[in-house]
Amino acid sequence: MSHNESNGDGLTYAQAGVDIDAGNAMVEAIKPLVRATRRPGADGLIGGFGGLFDLKAAGYVDPILVAANDGVGTKVKIAIETGRHGTIGIDLVAMCVNDLIVQGAEPLFFLDYYATGKLDPAEGALVVQGIVDGCRQAGCALLGGETAEMPGLYSTGDYDLAGFAVGAAERNRLLPRADIGPGDAILGLPSSGVHSNGFSLVRRIVTHAGLDWNATAPFAPEKQLGVALLEPTRIYVRQLLGAMRRTNAIKGLAHITGGGFIDNIPRVLPEGTAAQLDLSAIMPPPVFGWLSRAGKVEEAEMLRTFNCGIGMVVIVAADQIDAVTDALIAEGETPAHIGEIIASTDEQRVVTKGRLPL
To answer: Is 0.90 topped by the overall pTM?
Structure first.
């Protein structure tokens, strides 16, 4: 019997639920999308066993590589349940590249991991389109990825995403700087909404409120609830790279993700210091007021779960507030002065005054 013949009794991978042809079809469908992310150092081609990047071609002299990985949490469940897959990839890229820029690093390339119970090539291509959009916003190349079809591990229709980003910074430009200290100012850059953390609580509040994803969003009457909550995470890379090049005055950055202000700002603070935030200077988008009221979520829980309207924190010397603010505005940002660094030996590294205007 030749290798191409079958007696009809042999099991196949397709019968076990894995469609190799569907995977190949998806790769072909996304090749032109991936090419759109080309940048110096990467040619934007996929299909090999690994992706290559030329640091010298990217213009680095004495680079330190910085790597980050993340997912989008249970926000992906809203994309699945609404059938809206086109922006969740932006969230995936954002959660990784925003973690690179806070260390002063320019994102260079990105890889994704897309796991599903049964691969739908059209749906997968939509997810990758979002990843491509995110990479283009961040200026990094989509260098490769993995699509895994795993029947029995994921229910039909379910999928999950993970992202991996690598960036570089010249050795003398890494953040946070060692000279962060009392008197430094804290600026906040606005978020687009909930971004990509806290969605287990968001989904519980939505269920508790008796709403479905097609309902009118109570906080955005012009949108369906699912659409409003899928608003993608903002990517701050180009704005911050531009401001750093214009001023060289940014001392530290904190990406406000899981853990909110309370857990993320201390990650860049030296011993003996704390962040004092003026909550009344923050203007949370309406979604946060609705979540707080509908879920009866206390302010302290809001501050530790959500970004509450500030997706990125910027620390600068007091005499550089105007220069950095002007540079950020020139890059299209709208920074707010929301606090300062104070001397403190207390275990509590973030202290607040005023109330969130929810």
So the answer is: yes
